[in-house]
Design goal:
ten-stranded mixed β-sheet, D-Maltodextrin-Binding Protein, domain 2, 2 domains, disordered N terminus, globular, alpha/beta, about 325 residues, about 45% helix, 10 strands
């Protein structure tokens, strides 16, 4: 009898502990750390989601930008945080490139636990509207005819760099990278005619594509996108396995209680169904929704391996 009472007491204590972890999200502010500069797409998106969560469920989500060292500084802060569900990382695919390019004191696959993605946006190959290239094949044929003569803008070791090499390296084509820090300078270099092309996230180029200053040659998503229905995918353009879509999602420190993760995942899943949030993201060239839990983790593992393979094969460097 006493043994049964003890087991019941232990079970009750465990339930209380997990319930406390889950409820702690609503009792004190949740810190959301963004490892990118303020004012960018991740910053804007995180604040939209935070506002929506507050409206739906009541908790205060405080967004903090902690850029530096190619996402390492902000990511480290989350890895070292108390795993109680009250400090989260909001990031994208770029976190999976860094471990292949520099030594880290953390492993994104084991020191962080994926919660949910909340939005995604395609990448797009752009050229100046005065360029003679009207489709991706035209650009690649010209680059093949004059190895190294054509140029593209990118941040060394970033998504913009890896995306291009995912096309060039398998095709054994050479173009010269002109380094720029940040996406806006990369786009401006194409507009100004300083480089021949770039591969950037769609929102960064959307306005200039609409105004006619830039031409989109291909998109990196598996299917064509609603914003550019007449622009083929890279897969349609001769690279059937190609995909480069930027996802944006939340992760927590490893060992965060499952009850807390489940609470957060439920909030995010409901938030991305809110019509106002979906409309605001759509206006910025992003689509709301994504994966939570195990499917998100599996996607991260697959992308980590794929990016590592192309970084090694193409000998991509961070500098």
């Amino acid at each position: 009898m006493r043994g049964s009472i003890a087991r019941v007491a232990l079970a009750a204590a465990a339930v209380a502990m997990f319930a406390s972890a889950a409820l702690s999200q609503s009792s004190r502010p949740i810190k959301v750390i963004i490892p990118y500069p303020p004012g960018g797409g991740a910053d804007v998106l995180a604040r939209i989601v935070a506002d929506t969560i507050g409206t739906l469920h009541g908790p205060v989500m405080v967004v903090e930008d902690r850029p530096g060292a190619a996402t390492v500084i902000g990511t480290q802060d989350v890895v070292r945080a108390e795993p109680d569900g009250n400090t989260l990382l909001f990031t994208n695919n770029s976190m999976l490139l860094v471990p292949h390019l520099r030594k880290l004191d953390y492993d994104p696959l084991t020191n962080l636990v994926p919660i949910c993605t909340v939005a995604a946006t395609p990448t797009v190959v752009i050229v100046n509207s005065k360029s003679p290239y009207r489709k991706l094949g035209d650009l690649l044929d010209a680059a093949r005819a004059k190895p190294g003569a054509l140029t593209y803008s990118a941040a060394p070791g970033a998504v913009s760099h890896v995306s291009v090499e995912m096309i060039l390296h398998p095709a054994k084509i050479s173009m010269t990278m002109v380094p720029f820090n940040g996406t806006p300078p990369q786009v401006n270099a194409v507009v100004g005619g300083h480089v021949d092309a770039a591969f950037v996230d769609y929102p960064a180029a959307a306005g200039l594509i609409k105004s006619g200053e830039l031409r989109a040659l291909a998109v990196g998503s598996r299917q064509r996108i609603a914003w550019l229905p007449d622009v083929p995918t890279v897969a349609e353009s001769g690279f059937p396995d190609f995909e480069m879509v930027l996802w944006y999602g939340f992760l927590a420190p490893a060992h965060t209680p499952q009850a807390a993760l489940d609470t957060l995942a439920g909030w995010f899943a409901k938030a991305v169904e809110v019509a106002d949030l979906r409309a605001r993201l759509q206006s910025q060239g992003m689509s709301a929704g994504g994966a939570c839990g195990a499917p998100f983790a599996a996607s991260i593992r697959r992308q980590y391996d794929d990016y590592g393979r192309i970084i090694r094969d193409a000998d991509i460097k961070a500098e």
